[in-house]
Specification:
mainly alpha, 5 helices, transmembrane, unfolded protein binding, transmembrane helix, membrane, Pet100
Length: 117
């Protein structure tokens, strides 16, 4: 099989890589195997910009979210409980008293609903 001169290098590369000579028409695969043009990088300005973003973004977020003003405005306010929050029982006696009170409220509400119906 006779190949054009620019295909001979490709044929030789296939034979040395694969180990046997291709039996199909190599011109069919030529467009996908041979590079048409070389790709260039975007340039040093893009790389500088990316580097600046990679460095600046974390520093800026730490500066903004780590500032005392942000803490006072958002975090500290979220940790404050409302004034009308009931005390949470923390021992067994208080828990049993709270359960009795809730049960009495539930029974009173149920009697109220049945009397209104």
């Amino acid at each position: 099989m006779i190949f054009p001169p620019n295909i001979e290098k490709l044929k030789h590369a296939i034979v040395t890589t694969v180990g046997f000579e291709p039996t199909h028409n190599i011109n069919y695969f030529r467009s996908s195997l041979l590079p048409t043009k070389t790709l260039k990088m975007a340039g040093p300005n893009l790389e500088l910009f990316k580097f600046a973003v990679y460095i600046f973004f974390p520093v800026a977020t730490m500066y903004y979210f780590g500032a005392p003003e942000f803490y006072e405005k958002h975090v500290k306010m979220a940790r404050q409980w409302p004034e009308n929050t009931p005390n949470i029982p923390n021992n067994q006696k208080d828990i049993l008293e709270e359960l009795k009170r809730l049960k009495a409220e539930r029974i009173a509400k149920k009697n109220n609903n049945s009397a209104n119906s």
